[in-house]
Amino acid sequence: MRKSLGDPVAEELRFVVRSVVGEENFVDMLPNRSNNFCCGGGGGFLQSGLADARRAYGKTKFNQIKATNAAYCITPCHNCHAQIHDLSEHYEGGYQTVHLWTLICLSLGILGENEREYLGSDLAQVGL
Amino acid sequence: MAIEIGRVKEKSIFKDRIMSLLPDGGNLNACLTCGACSSGCPATGLENMDPRKFLRMAALGMDEEILNTDWAWMCTGCQRCIHVCPMRIDIPALIFQVRKSWPREKRPKGIRGSCDLALKHDTCSAMGTSEEDWHFVVEDVAAEVRETQEGFEDLVAPMDKRGATFFLNQNSREPVTEPEEMIPLWKILQKVGANWTYGSKGWAAENYCMFLADDEGWERIIRTKVDAVEELGCKVWLNTE
Ligand code: SF4
Ligand code: SF4
Description:
- The complex is a heterodimer.
- By secondary structure, chain A is mainly alpha-helical.
- Chain A contains four helices and two strands.
- Chain B is mainly alpha-helical.
- The model of chain B has no long low-confidence stretch (mean pLDDT 92).
């Protein structure tokens, strides 16, 4: 996002996230915006076969996520989702990794039963 | 008297190549060696390497050493180093050139395989999904939602709808490994009344040929995608990757 359209467009996404989860449930990670760290899934890393290096790279992201104490990490694309989900499992982070579309539909009360793969037990039954 | 540092080569391919790519006539010698790039790069320390070191090695003409490490495949191209560099030095562009200098068959198998599969069909899917399989999955998933979910009896995932405003693409893993992840997106688009469509061709979001540093394949994939969007006369190309 920041690479192509810059930080301002990400502010619109923050607005969406805040509206969906509620201001009190939103935690921005630090550092953020253009100063944020890449998760390590990009550039072909996920497909490179260099899993140990990929997870070592991702440790920075993992620590950053853990420092927020948040139970859910929202990821913008499939690639980040796969990496951040894997980091949680590998380092036993205990956080859930979700797509924004899942939370939008959950908040609108239109998320189907089979569309909840990445929700934790706290939200899995909400609105069913 | 000049001090000889390392084994300085007569001629450096990377240095020459990268110099022509740097913006505003900047060059690799403009590096202040401040280390800001390295201190914020998550790949620092892997393979005993970091962006500053990599750049210095290129500047010193140590091409051979640079090609002898896998580190070029551990940089994600995130550009954080450029963001913090006082001289705006484009290290990922250097890394791309290094990737390009690997013989194609030596580049990581997974990335190469994904690129090759994407070149197999006009869908550009890195999973090698054909147009028929793509049609089938989308229609199958949509039909199930219509039958089973109240309020979505009319849900459609339009295919090749001419003149739609938005051309939506999709990571090619989703239709294959977790098709139900596509549904929330369709629901949102329907709720907001978006005039959107998928395309039979060029719908896959990713481009592993770019990561592989295969310029020809990269260009072919982009052209196939652009042609697909233009063919349907869509105004906005929505990339979910
Ligand atoms: S941040 Fe820029 S100037 Fe500083 S060491 Fe890195 S490339 Fe050189
Ligand atoms: S683009 Fe590569 S070298 Fe630069 S910060 Fe990101 S991973 Fe490190």
